[in-house]
Amino acid sequence: MLSINIKNQSDAQANFVDNQLSRQVQSAVDEVGKALLGKDHQIRLALCCLFSGGHLLIEDLPGMGKTTLSYALAKALGLGYNRIQFTSDLLPADILGISIFDQNSGQFSFHPGPIFNQLVLADEINRTTPKTQSALLEAMEERQVTIEGETRQLPEPFFVIATQNPSTLAGTYPLPESQLDRFLMRLRLGYPDQRAERELLEMNTERDKLEGVEQCLSVEDVTELRKQSSKVKASSALLDYVQRLINFTRGKDEFHFGISPRGSLAIMRAAKTWALMCGRNHVVPEDVQAILPAVVEHRLRATTDDDGHTGASLVQRLLNEVDVVD
Fold first, then answer.
1. Strand runs (DSSP E) across the chain, as ranges?
2. Could you give the CA distance from residue 254 to residue 231 in angstroms, rounded to a whole number?
């Protein structure tokens, strides 16, 4: 399995370790790609989100591979996995767990809920009530849950992939901006290309794809990657570029609101991880540009937009109009 220790290496050795890291990341992309065909960029972004210590929101139509991606990630990285199907009658206790009185011992016994796993799929999160949504989001933020006055830590690493159907579909409770901001990234998978769909049609069942995924990283590797991503350097010029991007969203009338400080930190966390995944110990503007749509689209809205679907066009403005060099 992967072993990373850049801090105490010489430059030549560090470069060698970085190359090893890039190959390991590519092997994870390849393994997950056996199940989610033709979506290597989205897989890389999902891995970046995980290695950055954030959580991922996937918004797309039913049947696009959201569940497949989450299960394949868990299998390739050796993470404990559970799936929660969100429905209108789901209660917070169904997620967090509950204490049940044991008549034999005369004491209450805690039965942990499905949230106590390393990778949790919150499927169709916008089909449940805001109260239940909040219970999950609190666990995501605090990495712990408090039940009946007792605090219980969640496992490490702890990664939530939440999926939601487009708000135009019936029976949905859209997440408010304050809760969307809790997700480091939002992705859309989209339809497969012709080659990927042809390969999919030649398979007997969807399960055939998942059975071919093998573990290529360990939990220890994931933990170490998270530690190393925080050590990636960013120059003053790079930080200036990020600040210009952020200030652009705060100073234009077209933006209903600008990127929050949490959003600006999210950009840097993801950019550092992306640089590490590319085999570098410093961030370049291309790293910021690669992760920017996934990190800030769901944090932006045009002043004329009532549905919150203008983030993509606003991000494109950022990429086109903000100069990399001042």
1. 56-59, 81-85, 97-102, 107-112, 119-123, 144-147, 150-153, 159-164, 185-187
2. 36
> By C-alpha distance, which of 299, 277, 296, 286 is closest to 47?
277
The DSSP symbol for 256 reads S
Dihedral angle computed from the Cα positions of residues 195, 198, 200 and 205, in that order, rounded to the nearest 10 degrees: -170
Contact present, 73 and 39 (Cβ < 8 Å): no
Question: What are the φ/ψ torsions at residue 63 (nearest 5 degrees)?
Answer: 85, 15
Domain range annotation of the chain = 36-217, 230-326
Q: Are strands 144-147 and 150-153 parallel, antiparallel or unpaired?
A: antiparallel
Per-residue pLDDT tens digits for 173-223: 677 777 788 899 999 998 989 998 888 888 766 677 788 899 999 999 999
The string of pLDDT tens digits covering residues 103-143 is 787 777 888 899 999 999 999 888 888 888 888 887 888 88
DSSP 8-state secondary structure symbol assigned to residue 175: P
Cα–Cα distance, 258 to 71 (Å, whole number): 34
Distance CA 263, CA 302 (A): 17
Bridge-based pairing of strands 56-59 and 159-164 is parallel
Those residues whose C-beta lies under 8 Å from the C-beta of residue 183, and which sit 6 or more positions away, are 54, 55, 56, 57, 162, 298
CATH number for domain 36-217, candidates 3.20.20.70, 3.40.50.300, 1.20.1280.290, 3.30.470.20: 3.40.50.300
**How far does Cα 68 stand from its chain's mean position?**
15
Amino acid at 324: V
- In this prediction the pTM is 0.87
